[in-house]
Amino acid sequence: MEVNTRIAGAAFHPMTVLNAWEHFKHGADIGVRGIGFSRDAAFEQAALALAAVVADPATIRSDTPIRIRCEAPDDELLLIDWLNALIYEMATRPVLFNRFSVTIRERVLDAVAWGEPLDHARHHPSIEVKGATYSELRVEHSGDCWVAQCVVDV
Predict the structure, then answer these.
(1) What's this model's pTM, rounded to 2 decimal places?
(2) pLDDT (tens digit, 9 = 90+) per residue, 96-118?
């Protein structure tokens, strides 16, 4: 898969793109990276990158809000719990996502994920998500932005 970058609510700062997501190759797996002006925004963008592995977020309507709460002892485990919660919703409901609102306080993530139920007549998912394993975890403050990334084997 080629590197794909989307900029949501673009805010440009000299030499820095804020609130963006991208995919990157990592062997046979795919990396998802969220870049944001805050830790919350980086987690939102990482979720968009994950959602885009399944289907283009631009083709999804924001009909269904789903509340998600995660808690973990550090940022990397919080990122895994967050992405696992999304994969669980994609696999069990099934629903596709196109927008996220994340608030992180200490080690607790509260979020709303918006999307719509999978409709095979309208949507053409590139993969059917059943679960995932993660590696190469990274959540860090870098310059003027936060980066949340991992490699996903779905």
Answers:
(1) 0.87
(2) 999 999 999 999 999 999 999 99
